[in-house]
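Hi C.,

You asked whether I'd gotten around to modeling the 353-residue construct. I have! Everything is below, sequence then structure, no commentary in between.
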Amino acid sequence: MMIQRTFLFLLLVSIAGWGQQRVRAREAGVTLGAMKPGPLNSITDVAGVRVGHVTLRQGPNICTGVTAIVPHGGNLFQEKVPGAVFVGNGFGKFVGTTQIEELGEIETPILLTSTLNVWRVADALTDWMLGLPGNEEVRSINPVVGETNDGALNDIRSRPVGRDHVFAALREAAGGPVTEGAVGAGTGTVAFGWKGGIGTSSRITREGWTVGALVQTNYGGDLMIGGVAVGRRLRNEPPPSPDGSVIVVLATDAPVDARNLKRMAARAMLGLGRTGAAGSNGSGDYALAFSTARSAQPPVGNNSMSGLFLAVIEATEEAVVNSLFMAEPMEGNGRRIEALPVDRVVQMLREAR
């Protein structure tokens, strides 16, 4: 009788939310991949990279925001970084990608937001860049802005993200730990039927190079974590719609040229595949990679790229899992999206060992 009462108590407490504290994967005892993460296990482990968020929660229907990834602290137009974009499936809007493809350079911070806010955010980012000291005579700016569609939880047609929000995200961009989950561009996103959001992770190669990933998860498929089909076990039914989108932003301090940065970006899709991504017709799957190396050292040769490729795969996978583990349940736009039940997932992974 005592055992039954104790079980009932624990069940009721669990239903009430006990044990549901949002923690990152490694804090929950979930280790993904074989490579060592950086000190913060974050894209900001790449020296100089900064991240800022502005989160909009207004009334019952506005759940959106903007996230800024800044490659270095200088004037990016004057000190461009090598960059590349890989398109897994192009059902999306990613402003600035054609010039990156042509020139292999990135000249503004990378901003992430909601689909219908892309052009407003790009306009504000252009204002920001034109206003920087040293850019007084600049007559062309290539703003880089990606998106996923947060219309399930957000009144997407209202397009509330404006100039002040973009400027605030850029001003507040900082190194150090990155806030994850339902923040910034991940405020209203949904992944695998659970609350998605912003996630990040990093890896250190044998050569001592750092690779960091930041993701905006809003995509579908059959959720896998550490090779375990947790999604179907949790739901006991077919996975929800495979449609949706995901943006992966990759940073490295390795001296990688634009051609090999594109090869790195392509490996992000393998990381997404480890999470059970469907890559459906209605999915916008993009990866953007840049290097912060600014010395005259020669670029990494083809034969030395494999460690960087694996770092991308592992960091992308863990960043996705962190976005799910850290996101809290959310109500908006007349819907409620539950958070991934971390305690149940961890138990499944333990049992699968």
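If it helps when you're writing up: The first helix runs from residue 2 to 16.

Thanks,
B.
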